[in-house]
Structures are given as C-alpha cells and as structure tokens.
Amino acid sequence: MDVFQKADGWFLVEPHYLDKNHDAFLVNAKGQKKPASDESKSGSESNGTKKPSQERPPNLPTSITRCFFRGDEMIEIENSAGERGFCDKDGNILVPLSNCFNLQYLGSDRFIRESYQDDGLKRTELIASGGKVLVTFSQTIHLESHRYCDGLLRARTYGPDAVSICYFDESGTLAVEPGRFASGRDFHNGRAVVEMLHGGSKKAAFIDTSGEIVAGPFFSAGDFLNKTFAFVSVDETHSGIIDRFGKFVIEPLYTVLELQGDKLAGVKDGRWMLLSRAGELMLKLPPRVTFLDARSKDGLWIFGEGGSASDDIDILDEDNNEVARKKLGLMNSLGRIVLNAQFYEIENIGEGFARLAEAKNQKHELRWGVSNKLGKIVVPCSFSEIQKDGDTFIVRNKRPGGFDPDEWKRLDQQQSMNRVDLWRKFLDDYDVIGMDRSEIYRLLSRSSTNDKDEIIYFRLNSGDWCGNASRSIEFRLDRLTDKVTGWRERKGGSSMGPDNGWFTENAVYKCLDPERRYFNTFNIVPKYRNSARSTSKPVRSCF
Predict the structure, then answer these.
(1) Which tens digit of pLDDT belongs to each residue from 244-274?
(2) What distance in Å separates the CA atoms of residue 527 and residue 525, rounded to the nearest whole number?
(3) Residue 349: CA count within 13 A, CB half-sphere
(4) Nearest Cα to 16, choosing from 29, 1, 5, 31?
(5) Are 163 and 150 in contact (CB under 8 A)?
(6) Backbone angles phi and psi of 444, in degrees to 5
(7) Residue 383 near residue 367 (C-beta atoms within 8 A)
(8) How is the beta sheet containing 327-332 ordered, strand by strand?
(9) What pTM was estimated for this model as a whole?
(10) What is the per-residue pLDDT across 11-54, written as a single tens digit (0 to 9) for each?
C-alpha cells in the first residue's frame, strides 16, 4: 500500500486502497484516522463520510490515481484521464487539473507547466497558485532550473547565432537579459557563476541578482559556499579564495586548495598544509606527504606517500596516464603519523576506526582489516569484506577463483543482478548430477517452499538490461532418492540443452579463449570426458 508521510508524523493514504467513496484519509503510523479536530479542512468528516459538496474543494478529483508528498507539503494529483494538477495537504486545489506532460513545483509559490499545442509545438507556462498563468515562455527559451534560487530561475535561450543564459524573477520578468553570458549556474547567496568571453577565451565571473559582474574574470570558479567566500583559479595551477566582492582572502598561491571538514587543505611549494578559513597557517606537513584527506571529524586523517603532492591518489606521468598508486597511511589531527603508508586503500568508518586494505597481487585483490585511531591493527588485513555494526566488525572471505555461496546469496537480494558467471563456477566445483536436495539448498539457498517439488529453480539474472531475457537454472530431482537427475538452463521461456533441455550428466562451459572463460556464450561439454562417468555421445551446445 502506498502511503505518504507528512512532516508532522501523519500519513496520507490514497483513497482506492481504503474506500472509493472517500477522497483521502490522514492516519498515524498505527493506521488510526486523524481526529476530527485535526482534519477540519480535509475532504471528509471524522467518521469517513463525505462532506456536503459545497464544503469540499470543487476541483478535487473523486479518485486520486497517483500522488506523492513534496518537501513543501504539496501533492501532485492525476485523474483517470491523465490530467495533472497540484493540491495542498488539505485537498485545496493549487493548480487545476489539465492535460500536460510535465508539471513541477519551483518554490516561491510558483509552478512550471509544459504541454503540447495543437500545432505540435511545446508550450511552457509559469503558473501561480490558483492556476493563474503569469507568462508563456517563447519557443526559444528552455528552463534549466528546477527550483527558484535566490528568487531567480535560470533559463537557456537559443538565438540565431548563439546560445546564452538568462534569469527570470518570480513574476516571469527577465532579471538578467540573454546575450551576455554563454552559460551559468543557479544563484547561491546572491551570487552566480557565469561563463563569458574575455580576451578571446572563456572565463568565469560572478554576477549579482541584477546581472552586474562583481568579481572576475577568472580561469575557473566555484559557487559561494556561504556569504563569505568562493574558490577561484587564476590559471591551471594557482588557486585562492575571494570574498563576495572579488577581493582575495587567500592569495592564489596554491596548486590545490579545498575545503576538508571545518578547515582548508592546500598544496603550496610542493607541501600539504592546513589553513583556517581566514587563511591562517595551522599545520605544515612534511614533504613525504603527497596526498591528504583530513575530512574525518574524529581526528583520523588519511595521507599518502609517493609521486608529487596533489589531490590525486594515483601517480601520473606527463600525459596524465596512471603509472602507480600512492601508498596510504594514517595520521592524527596533530600531523603525527600513527600508521605508516603501506596500504592500497583506506576508508574512515567512524568512531575512530578505519578500514584498510592491502593489495595481495597485481590484480589488486584486496584484503581488508581495521585500525583504531592509535594506529593499532584490531582486525588483520585478511578478509574480503569488513562491515562495522555497532561495536562489532562483520568479516567474510570470498573463495578465491571458485564458487562463493555467500556471493550467490548476496546477489539474490538485488533487483539488478547477474549470477551467470557464478553458476558456471558452480559447475566447475561441484558435481550436480547425484547431488542431494539439502546440499543444493545449502549452497544456493532455499528455492522451493515445498520440499517435495520435483523441479526447483534459481534466477541467474534479472533480465533487465537491453537485449537480455531473464535466465534461470532448473534442477530435476528423483522422487524416491531426492537427488538431482538433470539440470537445464532457461532463457526467457525457452529451454537450452538436449533431451527437452535437460542435461543428465555433469558438464562444464568451455571457451577457447581463457580470458573469456565466464562470459555468456560458450559450449557445454562433459566434465569427465575421459572417465567412466562420461557418455559417448557429445553434449549439444547450449546456445
């Protein structure tokens, strides 16, 4: 049943799940109806009967076929004819039902409605609550913002010679005219980053809500994070921070400059250092530190060694190709190293703990462990996966190279999954013919609710990507012995294999190219070709 939670803890339940004679019900988490004193404005009395028609909103549909709550406590409604509109949480109509393909709430009590005209052209309208159309936009205007930001809506205009951006206010009037800036972002804290031509090249600048340039041009720029500062770059290798009027608060002397938690981290003269937001030096790290992630709030920082100081964990050559990876370690908030840089991967998991992994071979098969904030290894790096659950660490190991029952069962919980390769590994590792039902359940999980079913099946994939039907594997069991006498793979509704699709001997998938061993298109061959368990007749291709 679809229910939609409101901020005050009550839920709106769609009428066709309860009683089609009523429009909607407000219930609490236990399913109890909201008291009459709390729903005096809703479309039904406390006993569930309809109010007289003159007391109910005149345009409220008698059946809401689709609705959901917005963050603004608005409900999108749709009737059986496909007409769409908006009402508030009490059922009062905000935008009357109409035929349109897009209807969005923009904030500031404004909506955007898009529909097709009789001539096939798109019509885009700005609407106020009550359904009043404030403006119908020109065909050359495409709205890019999904919300009003600082009272302005960003749009792109397509002129005869160029594309540019503009901004509309809440009345639909142009606040920033098109033709001046090639592109731009939404406003934040009274400023927006725009792209402009300067000296024959594209540059970034900041404008205010009237369209006046207040800072720039710069090589690149980021949004104002608050009303105080924004990151800018004057060229490819020098970054700094400006205030709202373009004055540098931190001079552009840093090759890397970024916000990490409540502090700034940057690289200057080849060394990582930490700064206050006012630009005061707090800590300078030794030259051996070439990577830093100091975002953790529990004082456990990740650092790297190797290569040159940058915000990249990989070591790159002159052509920006990855040639190696920096070794990672841990340091505390005083810059003291608590765990030497020797790990391939490190992740903070909170409460003073970090997951860390060693690469065991050239394929970077990782073995995970856990360190505390003092650098003590509390779980050795010998597990395929580690998760923290309260005060407990849950660890597991995958079987290297072979069939992994845990992985098979884990994928079964995913809506989009593919277990074809695991099935082929299963055939390699186990003899299916003659296997007990209980052993199948142990390895592949319980598929059937009836232990006497002669045929049990398991999904191999969800069949939800282009060109692939769903696949499953089926086992046929003997009624008396409860052992497998045959197996087959099904793709869509078709069986693949000899004898009505059933394979009655142990077999494996084969491919001439070992690198494609577990891809989707192989032949099935007897598993024991040279033994007494192999039949004389060949096993037919499964594809």
Answers:
(1) 888 998 999 999 999 888 889 999 999 999 9
(2) 6
(3) 20
(4) 1
(5) no
(6) -110, 0
(7) yes
(8) 291-293, 300-305, 327-332, 337-343
(9) 0.59
(10) 444 443 333 344 444 444 444 555 544 443 444 444 444 433 33
